[in-house]
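URGENT: need a sanity check before tomorrow's submission.

F., can you look over the DUF2218 domain-containing protein record below? I want to be sure the sequence and structure line up before it goes out.
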Amino acid sequence: MAALRSEASVGTLVPDRYLAQLCQHLSREVTATYSGREGRAEFGFGQCKLQTGRRALMLVVEAEDENSLARVQHIVSSYLKRSMWREKPTINWIRKSD
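Structure tokens as predicted:
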């Protein structure tokens, strides 16, 4: 189980579209799947779980160490910002503890 976790909620009127786009883009590099309102991307050093809300895309990143957590956050943020370029999203990662 991952020792570190952070979350972000990105506001958008079309979270389903961005969930699909993000998972499709990530699947070119890592194992990424989505179905309905949920998705998951598996990196060798961490993972990202995605879920759509009414007006937001929720992201949960988990990793074993600080560097890996920051790396997954950076990759997911970069891909999402490219997908959402028209909306210019703000992605603020918030550290969570179990």
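My own read: The two ends are 11 Å apart (CA to CA). Residues 4-96 form a domain with the TATA-Binding Protein fold (CATH 3.30.310.50). If you see anything odd, call me.
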